Input
Amino acid sequence: MRCQFVPPYLLDRLADVGHGHAADWFGRTRGLDERLRERRATTSPSVAQPPDADGTKTIYSAGGGTSLPGDKVRGDADPPTGDQAVDEAYDSTGIVHELFSTVYGRSGIDDAGSTVTVTVHFGRAYDNAFWDGDQLVFGDGDGEVFERFTKPPDVLFHEFTHGVTQFTADLRYSGQSGALNESVSDCFAAMALQRQFDQTAEQADWLIGEGLFKPSINAVALRSMREPGTAYDDPLLGRDPQVGSMRDYVETTADNGGVHINSGIPNKAFTLAALRLGGYTWERTGRIWYAALTGDAVGRDSGFGEFAAATVAAAGDLYGEEEADAVSAAWEEVGVTPGLDAADAGAPARRSGRIVVSRTGGFTGVVREAAVDADEGPLGAEVASILQQVNFTALPIRDADPRGADRFTYTFTYGDQQVTVPESALTPELERVATLVLGRLADTP
Output
């Protein structure tokens, strides 16, 4: 599993919009990232360590090259070197390692006590940081848009947690499971940063990558967990595309299925839960998320609903009904209903029941209604599968569109869920369901 800090869509924009040397830097980073993705597409069963690694952490330098891990520059017991990137990486690794060790009882990334290997000065003007399945890697940035990637400590905290996820739930880096993978890294990065500065959930700014951009860039950070989509708005970067609710969920094949865009949804759920529970985030909220990540209820292909259900269950087991209700309410606020996408071997669980679609209105005012059972052959299976992707509670509640006189209104009933949607507000999924189910009436006089 190889996870990068800067999303590929942002590098694509910078390479296309940038000028002169800047465009070359971003294009070079993008090309190197693509080659690295091709080189390593699978996860490791164990952490491969250099023979000269020692203690809990060892820092290496690639010296502007791309060979890993590079030359050893600071061992676990060595004093500061005076190289900012080396010493920042050393200090930040110690902070996040100590969080997992002290608070969650975890022995390093793999929970087997392996040394954390970190390489700095990777590539020339390399604008990214990543976990490659064995170690953490950091570029120096281009110096005009991005600072060095070791400067904000939560960049390293984030990448460290990708390693922890690899050795726990191993969330597949695609679609909802990939967005969860990204979100888990942001959540624990935020907790490590808050712990470093002794901040409560209420005191924290909930920014990820603050200080990564140069002062000339109109950006407060790379992401905002509290207000996804507000971290930057700059002519060079464009506007932050993250979303914070299922009503805005982005279906895309880019960015591994939108892992950096849709991660804002579970990010905001975590933030809301932490604010509801109060106090230090790494205590109750962090223990709940860690229990979900490391428990049996979350697997490689888990989606938002399944992960949400695991956190609600963990909150109840660890603390009680009040805490479980607070966590559940946080997920509901972002449009995720805990348990709706419970998985069996990675596939969404299929609810049984009757699916009814009715259409009213139009010029004639005729009502058309048809139904199909979820277990009724290929048609029922397809309709049920589509509806598994629809969160009824996240659909916008709208009155009939006054601009759409004589247009239709659709009512969808599935089990105990029902929603009425004007034609102008139909999602592609609901439109497909209406076509399939009402199409059964085509041969009816």
User: Anything to note?
Assistant: Residues 63 and 311 are 43 Å apart (CA to CA).
